[in-house]
Amino acid sequence: MTLHAREINQDVRELGALLGEVLEAQTSTEAFETVETIRNSCIDYRRGDAETRDEVHRALNRLNPETQDIVARAFTTYFELINLAEERERVREIREGSQEGVLADSVEEAVRDLADRGAAPEEFEQVLEDVLIQPTFTAHPTEARRKTVKAKLRSVARDIERLDERRLTDRERKRIERDLDAEVTSLWQTPQVRDRRPEVTDEALNVQWYLENVLFDVIDEVYDELEATLDDVYDEDIDVDTLYEFRSWAGSDRDGNPFVTTEVTEETLERQRETVLPLYRNKLKELSGVLSQDASNIATDALFNERLDRHKSRLPGVATEAEERYPDEPYRQKLRLMRESVVRVSDVRQGGYENEAELLTDLRVIADSLRENDAEVIAEAHVDPLVRKVETFGFNLASLDLRDHRKMHTDAIAEAVDRQGIDYAAMDEDERVEFLTEAILQDNTVIDMADTEGLSDDATRVLDRFRATADWQNEFGIDAIDTYAISWCEEPSHVLEVLFLADQVDIVDLPGYCGFDIVPLLESEYALSGARRIMGTLFENEAYSQALEARDNVQEIMLGYSDSNKENGFLAANWSLYNNQKRLAGITNDYDVEMRLFHGRGGSISRGGGPMNDAMLALPNETVTGQIKFTEQGEAIAEKYANHDIAERNLEQMLNAQIRARKNAIEEPVEEIPDEWESAMETASDAAREEYQDLLETDGFVEFFEQATPITVIENLNMGSRPASRSEDRSVEDLRAIPWVFSWTQARCILPGWYSISTGLDAYLENGGDMETLQEMYENWPFFRTKLDNASLALARTDLEIAEEYADLVDPDLRERIFPRIVEEYEETVDKVLEITGQDGLLSRDWLEENLERRNPYVDPLNLLQVRLLKQSHRTETERRTLRLTVQGIAAGMKNTG
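and the corresponding structure tokens:
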């Protein structure tokens, strides 16, 4: 059976041709021919038909500012369209693989794998009971495209899908092609660059779009696939509990973002609730259209009748209307009442559901009644999917995590208790722990949280946030906002400070009640190496142990990938994270506490990115409790969750990996790693860290970075609501990890993803190691293989010829001291990686190589134009806009920012 009418080359060719027609129509034939000359010259060089890029440079030299802008817009728009063509190709591969039964990493594959390994039904049920996957969407500013542009691109994507998946008449095809022409024309006429920095609300709305328009629709399809496969493979019924929960930082992450106020967080909570409730109301109305059974054809049981009568008594007016409209149709009467109770959740009128548990109970009672009336197929097709949606999204769409820097809490407490003659600031760590513990355990409050007179603005904001959170939990439910992450947490007191502040507003009432998961974010080497000191002190602390018991003895711990990489380099950072995860597992195991690791991953390789399913399977077995949480950021969100088929595929791959990883951990709780492998990594890691830090500490390196990348442009790009740097200092340490990686990616020198790997591996080899051991490690150790594969991707996407163009912007003496060193490390790392993997090229998958070959000739003009503009000391407004546009275009071409 043919599922599709097209293939990627046709999409690329026709979209490129359409863009050319629009460009010529909207500008001029001369402008079109200029773009074509540049495009063909770049293709000629990449193919080897031209020895140099001289023709490209000559063409760019002839451009006036207005034509430069057209060229930048043309190649940027091209990538926006080609990304859609590649998205469509991914969908084709998913659908065809599913149809042919060869789709790797699927839910079906995971079920059959465990069954083949002899997993009995009760064992599989235990694995599923342990599994909880929590993708957490953040507002980190790595999404370079405007919301308006994204909306237009989704329209183009729908047109491509219609052309690909439907049998069309000539007239229908012409209409779609006309719509496509209109949308691309509108896209061309729409500014690509934001004229203002997005507000926090914009970022929250962006995250909400994916939850509302994609994930809400696909979540039950993943469950359906799992349950159908379980039915095929096992004779016994296997219960499937909640496997996914979606969370968000957008609108609630205060760390480093002064624009996240209590007003913004409250608006986010309200908007998310007002978004999800109508979705349920519409689904209940659809269900009413299906459940039209007459009372004479079914027999409702006592439980259903009891709940129907009770509901009628709560909403007598609606009950009368339902009885008149649906006489002798008990399901429809009940559904009409349920719709009204959903409407009244946030209403001043009585009769609304108190929480999602009440709605779930009603839905399950209906499902059970259908099954008793031999209508199980109706329950499976129409009621069970809605149950899964409510279980997943609740009445809040996504739970919010609060986060702030630990210094904010310390300073706020110091100021607040100073008014009572308590010098908290002067206390040492032991004294702070003792003071906070006693204050939490005593009945009386220590601080009047409403009295902020005389406090600094920061302290006032902290106290106001905790008071507001208590109100939010009362209004929206505890699950709406039940997690508080502490960035740069380094001492036990930093955790107890949050517990103390929560206690002062009755979010915590010990023993027995704690409305927060308090999550230490361990980022610094000091914190990670002192994990036992921090967590052990907390687990033995009388107040914290009570809080933990009230949270089912689950301790969430967050690991920061980004700053660790920026501080230590790729190899050392990943080895440190691997070891520290094992260390944390040992600590929590010693105290009989269940650990949930929260992986603070970014979209890029250097910030923990790469295929999520591979990363999950490469985690140390000791850490795989079944529960896992990880951040989803920026353009990675759009790539994973903008398309229904791709979103479902990503969720399936996560579940596949987590089921298999949990089973592995049950069978082998402690992963046995040969001492020789660990010793090799220790030696390589130490040498790699030393080389990486030596590069960053080289005199003039910051100046080199500023001159050889467009960092100064990126800092003013209006990408996100949060500042790019933590202060006004010009240092690598002060710069946030996202613009650090973004800048290197723009210059096509993805140094954070590979620098010092070769130096590290050489140190191992020179210290008595051998290449055969490294090859064995790659073949048999998921951790090492995954990290080397990810580094290979960063190496493949690095283009030193283009990077050299940027390096030529640097003062000559400084350039000669730093750039050759980078080139040498790159070349040696490529050689080492290829020797270890035994592959002919850096990219092991043909489609990745094709993707890169297709993109490179079109990214080159944007890079070369960007370099020209960066050379200019003075730029017109048009040139400044074009420079910002080249950043957008390169990001689209590389499909990555930070």
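(Above: one complete record from the training split.) The first helix runs from residue 8 to 26.
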